[in-house]
C-alpha cells in the first residue's frame, strides 16, 4: 500500500474555500499529476511553499476548478514528510472529484488524525502538543482556544520536560556513582536530594491542582438550570444561547427531559442543562423527568435556581433552595420574568454569600449581571500561563503517577532508605512523565488519542 495519504481537510458542505491535503514520500509527485499550472513551469519547478495558480484535474485529466497549489519538503512541514495542498473553491463535488483524482494518481485515503499522528511520529509534535491540536479544533470558548494554542506552542511540554530533566540528572548521577566507584564523583548529599525531590513534587502538585480548571476550559462548566415548573428555565436557556433551543409555553411541565446547550457567559463556557420542573407528580413521564433533573443537579459544577419574580417565593421554591444548598456547590439565585413586575419592589432576594440577580429572558435585562456573577464564581487564574494546564483524564492519570512516584522516593529517603534504592521510584516517575509527552507511550494509547480526530487533520 502506498504511504502517501490524501484527504479533504475542510468541513463538509459548501464553503468559500475547500482544501485537499497530501502527505508522504510521493506527495509532490501525486499533486503534480493532478495539477496543470497556468505558467510554463511545472509544480516542482517552483520553489517549495510557493503558491502556484492553475487547474485541478479530475481522474480523466479534465479541469474541474482553478486553484492554488503548493508543496513542502520534509522535514520542514507539518507532518515532517513531503506534503502538498490544493486550495479550491469550497464545492463538495469539486473536492470529491479532486480526491478521487489523487487516489487514482497513487495516494490513499487518510485515516482519522493520521496527519497529526505522522507529525507526532516524525518528531514535529510531542503527544501533549498533538492532543492540543484536537483541543483547538474542539474549542468552545476564547479561553479554551487560547489555552490549546499555548499547549500547541509547547507550554505544557516545556513544564514537563523541566521536571523530567531534573529527574534524569538524579538518575545519571546515581548511575555514575554506582558504576564508577573509583572515579572522583561527588556523592549525593541526602539533604540536597530530599530538597530536589520535594521541589519536583511541588511542581507536579501544581499541575494536578489546576487540572480541574483545564477540564472546565476544554469541556465547559456543567450548569444545571433548576426550578419549579413554569419558572422561566427554558426561556432563560433560550436567551443565553440566542435562539429558541427549548420549547416554551404557559403550560407548567412542558419540559419533560433535560435539554443541553453551550454558551459563553461572563467569559466562562457553560454546558447549560435545562431541566424538568422539580415538583411531586403522579405522571410517570414527568416523574422520570424530575429524576433526571435531580441527577443533572448532582453532576453539575454550577446550579442556577430560577424563581418566578412575578409570583414570589413559593413553598416549592423553598424546598428547591434547601435541596440546592445541601448540595454544597456554587449556585446563583435567578429571579426571572423581571419584565412582568416593572419597577415594583422585588421579592426580597436571598442574602448571604449566594449571588442573586433579577433577569428578563424577554428583554435581556439582567443577563449581564448574571454573567458577572458567573465570572466571580469561576475567576481566571492569571498565575498559570496559557497552555500549562492538564486537560484530560489521560494526562491527569500520568501526572498523578509521576507525582506519587516522586513522593514515594522522598518519603523513603526520609525513612532512611539508601539513595540507590530510590532508583526504581525515579524510573517510574520518568516513565509516567514520558507518557505525557509521548516518549514512552504505548501504541494502543496513541491509537485511542488519534482516533478522536477528524479525517484530514
**Euclidean distance between termini CA atoms:** 21 Å
Could you estimate the helical fraction of the residues in percent? 40-55%
For the largest beta-sheet, the strand count, sense and barrel status come to: 7 strands, mixed
Mean pLDDT, rounded to whole units? 82
Give me the side-by-side strand order of the main sheet.
Answer: 3-4-5-6-2-1-7
Strand proportion = 15-25%
Note poorly predicted spans. 246-257, 281-287
Radius of gyration: 29 Å
Assign the structural class, choosing from mainly alpha, mainly beta, alpha/beta, alpha+beta, or little secondary structure: alpha/beta
> Which word captures the global form?
flat
Q: How many H/I helices?
A: 15
Question: How would you sum up this structure, described in words?
Answer:
- With 457 residues, the protein is α/β, with parallel strands linked by helices.
- Helix content is 44%, strand content 17%.
- The strands form 2 sheets. The chain has a 7-stranded mixed beta sheet, covered by helices on one side. A 6-stranded mixed beta sheet has the order 9-10-8-11-12-13, sandwiched between helices.
- A hairpin with a 2-residue loop joins strand 9 (259-265) and strand 10 (268-274).
- Helix 6 packs antiparallel against helix 7 and helix 7 packs antiparallel against helix 13 (393-414).
- The longest helix is centred in the middle third of the chain and has 25 residues, at 155-179.
- The two termini are 21 Å apart.
- The model is unreliable at 246-257 and 281-287 (pLDDT under 50).
Structure in a nutshell:
The protein contains 15 helices and 13 strands.
